[in-house]
Specification:
The structure holds 2 protein chains of 2 kinds. In chain A, about 30% of the residues lie in helices and about 25% in strands. By secondary structure, chain A is of the alpha+beta class. Among the domains of chain A are: about 50-175, Dipeptide-binding Protein, domain 1, CATH 3.90.76; about 270-485, Dipeptide-binding Protein, Domain 3 (Dipeptide-binding Protein, domain 3, Roll), CATH 3.10.105.10. In chain A, strands 1, 8, 9, 10, 11, 12, 13, 16 and 17 form a 9-stranded mixed beta sheet that branches. Chain B contains 13 helices and no strands. The chains are: A alpha+beta, B mainly alpha.
């Protein structure tokens, strides 16, 4: 057999395999940067990989319009209308009729809604129980009416009930029948139902033909777990993926945008990175040292480093665009000379060295290294103790690091961010801890008053005042806001314009299609 | 023979228990909390405590250890703390992929490494020997995440002969074979490089022995001298290395699995470690240890086949 003949046979053999492997008509293939999904119970969906497919499978009483995270545009979802009492404490939701759960789990009734919201509010069965603290009772008035009574006003009850986090409605019968199995085989009302999950490989979804907004145009979704960025990019370039989780990095965005027939969507919510300074521990118990840090930070440089398409300067201790955000807060400008002078005034003419615990996650570590260089110019040395990510999360909650770099996106209302990061109830190491690493509590009164205020103007004033106090006391220094990035081939039409997504990934709706 | 196998398996029990105890202690000493991983950063302390109680990670270490050992003895390794899926199910889903990759890499390593090693030994210090030594050095120094990406670029993206996503359909033999080729080449070439070097040195030693000179003096054909007298005597170190390497391949193929998007044991071990999935790690270690014991046993049995002078008693 000649060499040429052998080569020909080899190529023919592979060519015979190749078409079957590469062509999968009618399946939307989504590449995700993760090794595996966690729990598929929506009330435990906390990581990006788990959040993205939740609105494919579930609905809330109300929803953000697809492609938007505008809290003022919230619209009906499972509830077709609602009304609230004059004092804003009693809310009545009227459900759509004829909405059916996946499989044989029947029609959605008020009983399922009551069960779901109580489950979401219970710390034993939900990761989002804290969001439901203000709810006093949830009850079914009749099979299609649900009444919610609040013990105190909340800034936006509809926000808690959207198709996000604890607001997803599950089938009561499915949870009770399946028990622990429910987190592997969930049942919702969404446009897609889980078909099967193959550990470490993919989750497969099928269209819910009986979806109440109409049968989805895409028959199947294959949600593939591909942790290696390089391999995921190659698979996308090779058209083995229709959509690809992108990196919020200018080089990546520019490179992928150059590919033919590819669109890169950059969308909200942005993650705001803040350095939290523990005001109870030296050297940050001296406000002059904290002010020195604030002056040493160079935000425009951080944006140039990460890229103008995917990032913007942080302007407050609340991300931009959140209801209640205020840029009028006295944020200190970049001024290295002033930083050095403040340090000298505080008794550190030769600068300071701070031991900081930080994660080895590449994106966060790189950002911290840029910050380290910026602070060094002002005589502040960060002695980075780089640890594995789970260790980082545990140790910063044990007050082992006086400076904590933390990047997060939350529900787009100032209250959530301010409460979780700057209310004294959330101080780490306490029984009610969330993520207050600075130990600041000087804006508690404003945060609490704004939460229950029914006067929108007064509420906005209180949130602005809280931000002024926290920025003035330098509890945290805002750095940079990083947006989300997804790439898609032009054969994917979401059916809406993607400007934002609270599920941190594109929603695939009944109107989405593969061209 | 059966008694030998039974004795070896019994002797593995203390090893297994010792490894498990060490793993059990180490994963709990390392900072990090599975409850935080599951609940994320917005959960209240109350919710975190409640989950710790449900997962049982708040119980005293000794109680957790006892429950783990007694359950493991009955074959129940529990469920993953993070996904909630039974560990046996998780491992069962990826084990065939790991076995495919390990076997294919091993076959490739042996098929390439042994003949090249022999050839290099026969042409000692000649062009072939120098080339084999250089290439094997290159194979050993080229990390799989670099060679893997080049292979994907060439055969996946440029010539489009193989897919970039390598998770095969287990029910389709053709698909499995198609998708194991590139990762097996990436992993197998490193193994081939190693085997080439070991075979070369073992053959050089063997070819210098008296029995080779005697065989040649008797007029035995050169081909027979090399393949029967030389190789058979040189095979023990080669078998030892292959056995050791297969053990390493099972767990250390993580980079290959990540680059080629293949599921596998290595990848889930790393994932479980990152997520502090204690039960998953423990279960994986039991299975991994068992596989190593089996590989070592097969290696020992092969010694007897290769060289009858090696007694199995």
């Amino acid at each position: 057999m000649t060499m040429r003949l052998r080569a020909g046979l080899l190529a023919a053999a592979f060519a015979a395999f190749a078409p079957a492997a590469m062509a999968q008509q009618g399946t939307l293939r989504v590449g995700m940067a993760a090794q595996d999904m966690g729990r598929l119970d929506p009330h435990y969906a906390v990581s990006t990989i788990d959040r993205v497919p939740m609105p494919w499978m579930f609905n809330g009483l109300v929803r953000f319009p697809p492609g938007s995270i505008d809290a003022s545009a919230i619209e009906p979802d499972l509830a077709e209308r609602w009304e609230s009492s004059a004092d804003g404490r009693t809310w009545t939701f009227h459900l759509r009729r004829g909405v059916r759960f996946h499989g044989n789990y029947g029609e959605l009734t008020a009983d399922d809604v009551v069960f779901s919201l109580r489950k979401a509010a219970n710390p034993q069965t939900s990761a989002f129980s804290g969001d439901f603290r203000a709810i006093q009772t949830v009850e079914a008035v009749d099979p299609y009416t649900v009444r919610i009574v609040l013990q105190e006003n909340v800034p936006n009850l509809l926000g808690i009930l959207t198709n996000y986090a604890g607001g997803f409605i599950v089938s009561r019968r499915a949870v009770e029948e399946r028990g622990e199995e429910f987190k592997r085989a969930p049942i919702g009302t969404g446009p897609f139902a889980l078909d099967r999950i193959t550990p470490n490989q993919s989750a497969e979804f099928v269209a819910n033909a009986g979806y109440f907004r109409g049968a989805p145009q895409i028959p199947r979704i294959s949600y593939r777990f591909i942790p290696s960025d390089a391999s995921r990019d190659l698979a996308f370039q090779n058209s083995e993926l229709d959509m690809n989780y992108g990196r919020a990095d200018q080089t990546w965005v520019t490179r992928v945008r150059r590919q033919q027939g590819v669109t890169v969507d950059v969308f909200e919510p942005a993650e705001l990175a803040i350095i939290h300074l523990n005001v109870t521990q030296p050297p940050f118990d001296d406000i002059r040292v904290r002010q020195a840090i604030a002056h040493a930070v160079n935000r425009p440089e951080l944006v140039r480093w990460r890229g103008p398409d995917t990032s913007r300067e942080g302007q407050s201790v609340v991300p931009r665009g959140y209801q209640g955000f205020s840029a009028d807060n006295g944020l200190l400008p970049h001024d290295v000379a002033r930083a050095r002078a403040l340090l000298a005034e505080a008794g550190h003419p030769n600068g300071i060295t701070v031991r900081v615990i930080h994660t080895q996650l590449p994106e966060m570590l790189a950002a911290m290294q840029v910050l380290q260089q910026q602070l060094r110019r002002a005589g502040i040395t960060l002695d980075l103790q780089v640890v594995e990510h789970a260790t980082f999360h545990q140790q910063i909650r044990q007050n082992l690091s006086p400076l904590v770099y933390y990047s997060a996106a939350r529900f787009p209302i100032a209250d959530i961010y301010l409460t979780q990061f700057f209310h004294s109830r959330s101080i780490v190491g306490t029984p009610t801890a969330v993520t207050n690493f600075s130990h600041c509590g000087m804006a508690d009164a404003e945060i609490d008053a704004a939460r229950v205020s029914t006067d929108r103007a007064e509420q906005a004033r209180l949130w602005a005042e809280a931000q002024r106090k926290l920025v003035g006391a330098v509890c945290g220094v805002p750095l940079i806001e990083t947006l989300l990035v997804f790439a898609r081939h032009d054969n994917v039409d979401y059916g809406y314009q993607l400007r934002g997504s609270m599920s941190l990934g594109p929603q695939i709706t009944e109107a989405s299609r593969l061209r | 023979m059966i008694w030998f196998v039974a004795k070896r398996l019994l002797a593995a029990v203390p090893t297994l228990v010792a490894v498990l105890t060490v793993v059990f202690i180490i994963v709990r000493i390392v900072p990090g909390d599975p409850a935080l991983v599951i609940l994320g950063d917005q959960a209240t302390a109350e919710a975190t405590e409640a989950l710790r109680a449900r997962l049982g990670t708040d119980r005293p270490m000794l109680v957790q250890y006892w429950s783990f050992v007694t359950n493991a003895l009955t074959g129940d390794f529990g469920s993953s703390l993070v996904t909630g899926r039974p560990i046996i199910e998780e491992v069962g889903a990826v084990l065939p992929h790991t076995i495919d990759l390990t076997l294919a890499s091993m076959v490739l390593g042996v098929v390439v490494g042994v003949p090249v090693g022999i050839w290099a030994a026969l042409r000692r210090n000649g062009a072939v020997d120098i080339a084999a030594r250089l290439l094997s050095l290159l194979g050993l120094s080229f990390p799989v995440f670099v060679s893997g990406i080049y292979l994907l670029l060439l055969f996946g993206l440029h010539w489009r002969l193989f897919p970039v996503i390598g998770n095969a359909d287990l029910s389709d033999f053709g698909d499995r074979l198609h998708k194991v080729v590139l990762p097996a080449v990436a992993l197998g070439l490193t193994m081939a490089a190693y085997i080439t070097r070991v075979t070369r040195s073992a053959m050089l030693h063997s070819l210098g022995e008296d029995y080779i000179r005697t065989a040649r003096a008797k007029g035995v054909p050169w081909r027979r001298v090399v393949w029967v007298h030389g190789l058979r005597n040189a095979s023990l170190p080669v078998v030892t290395v292959v056995g050791l390497y297969v053990g390493i391949l099972i767990g250390n193929s993580v980079l290959t699995e990540i680059v080629f998007n293949r599921p596998g044991l290595g990848k889930i071990i790393v994932g479980a470690l990152n997520q502090r999935d204690y039960t998953m790690l423990q279960g994986l270690m039991v299975i991994y240890c068992f596989l190593i014991v089996v590989v070592n046993l097969v290696t020992d049995l092969l010694y007897g086949v290769m060289d009858p002078r090696v007694k199995q008693a």
